[in-house]
Amino acid sequence: MLPLLSINWNPEPELFNLFGHLPLRYYGLLWGIGILLACIIVQREYRDRKISDEKFSPLFFYCVIGITLGARLGHCLFYQPEYFLNHLWEMILPVKFLPNGEWQWIGYRGLASHGGTLGLIIALWLYCRKTKLHYMDVLDMIAVATPITACCIRLANLMNSEIIGKPTDVPWAFVFERVDMLPRHPAQLYEAIAYFIFFLGMAYLYKLGQKKQRTSSPYYHRSFFFGLCLTEIFTFRFFIEFLKENQVDFEDGMALNMGQWLSIPFILIGIYFMCFYGKTRKHR
Fold it and tell me: Which residues of this UniProt protein bind a 1,2-diacyl-sn-glycero-3-phospho-(1'-sn-glycerol) (predicted)?
């Protein structure tokens, strides 16, 4: 029996189709909005620190490539290695090769946030080698903006009716009609709301730190924001996984699913950088 206030959810994932072959989906649009918002926020941080626009300009390229490649490879290797190791080109190209030799444009159906985070960290290291900026300074600035991008990505998952929650009888349950007719936790929406709140909190701490002397503010030791971002996002991710359906069959027999196991090292790394790394080095 459906809960009295359950929401039937079945939006069309495509906004429109260009030339009949290139669809514009909510998923891609929301990804783009998330990246754009992050760029606007980080550019303001650069200007606060008197870093030139010339050094900011290549940042967008490094972030997009790092996140996209990392997220894609992360999904393929963490969740479906048995398929993609035998279809290597499909790991990189947004197409599916059919048995008759033709191909079908499907977009990137499968992006892992853990892989995207790792890809971004590596891309920023390469960016800092080129621009000679301090690596931890850049990670801190990116960290302030990261939750708003994560929020947009989870809204994109909601529009695609993917990464769904487990059945429930709560009055705000969603019925994902393209999946089944069971009322389920809107886990994507839970995450989107949480990440938006995390962004507001980090923006507040950043502004608070701007008003204080850098030598006296606990919010300005190098790595604080980077550590805080990893800790809060992946701690929430760990616990929200208990309300989600497993994404792949091999997770069914696991005490913790793949998302939870992958979150644990990010949480530990985040705690270290938030609480200890800056304590053993000079403040900025």
Answer: 154
Residue 116 falls within a domain, yes or no? yes
CA-nearest of 95, 90, 91, 115 to 107 is 95
Q: Which tokens belong to 151?
A: 């929020």
> Residue 134 half-sphere exposure, CB side, CA atoms within 13 Å?
11
Helix extents (H) in 166-219: 187-210
Name the residue type at position 252: D
DSSP 123-136: HHHHHHHHH---HH
Phi, psi of 167 (to 5 degrees): -55, 145
Quote the number of domains for the chain. 1
139, pLDDT greater than 70:
yes
**Position 208: which residue type?**
L
Residue of 269, 266, 258 whose CA lies nearest to 110: 258
Sign of CA pseudo-dihedral 162, 165, 70, 152: positive
Domain around 117: 7-280
Would 197 be classed as within a structural domain?
yes
Pick from 71-75, 170-174, 235-239: least confident: 71-75
247 in a structural domain: yes
Classify residue 2: in a domain, yes or no. no
Does 154 show up as a binding residue in the annotation? yes
The answer to whether residue 71 scores a pLDDT higher than 60 is: yes
Query: What one-letter code names the amino acid at 56?
Result: F
End-to-end CA distance of the chain: give it in Å, rounded: 59
Confidence band, pLDDT 50/70/90 cuts, at residue 105: low
